[in-house]
């Protein structure tokens, strides 16, 4: 897992991170973290080849539940450095960017 503040620090440092949001498109339209790549959880298995298994990957969703489930898909696909955003985009709004709406 990675906390929102840890992720923000890594992004600010320019660390090569692949941020994957597994929410649905309607949720994405409400808010998302800049630079994230949207792949809804139900499409993840069929679209995992769009991602680079060699990059550090952080998976997020609304509260961290769907992204925690998605970690298994990533690991089965050979991703070695994959982490869940603790608390999801709600925690990001609380700890990093209060402008991000919570729904």
Notes on the structure:
The mean pLDDT is 97. The chain is built from five helices and four strands. A four-stranded parallel sheet has the order 2-1-3-4, sandwiched between helices. By secondary structure, the protein is an alpha/beta fold. It is globular and about 35 Å long. Helix 2 links the parallel strand 1 and strand 2 (37-38). The relative contact order is 0.23. It starts with a helix and ends in an 8-residue tail after the last helix. It has a single domain, classed as Rhodanese-like domain (Oxidized Rhodanese, domain 1). The protein has helices at 4-12, 25-30, 44-47, 65-76, 88-95, and strands at 17-21, 37-38, 56-60, 82-84.
Write a short abstract of this structure:
This protein is of the alpha/beta class. 38% of the residues lie in helices and 15% in strands. The protein has a single domain (4-95), classed as Rhodanese-like domain (Oxidized Rhodanese, domain 1).
């Amino acid at each position: 897992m990675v906390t929102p503040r840890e992720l923000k620090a890594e992004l600010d440092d320019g660390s090569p991170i692949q941020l994957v949001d597994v929410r649905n498109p309607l949720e994405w339209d409400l808010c998302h973290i800049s630079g994230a790549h949207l792949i809804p959880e139900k499409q993840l298995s069929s679209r995992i080849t769009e991602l680079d298994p060699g990059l550090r990957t952080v998976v997020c969703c609304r509260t961290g539940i769907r992204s925690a489930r998605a970690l298994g898909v990533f690991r089965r696909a050979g991703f070695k450095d994959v982490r869940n955003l603790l608390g999801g985009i709600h925690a990001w709004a609380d700890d990093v960017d209060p402008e991000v709406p919570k729904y």
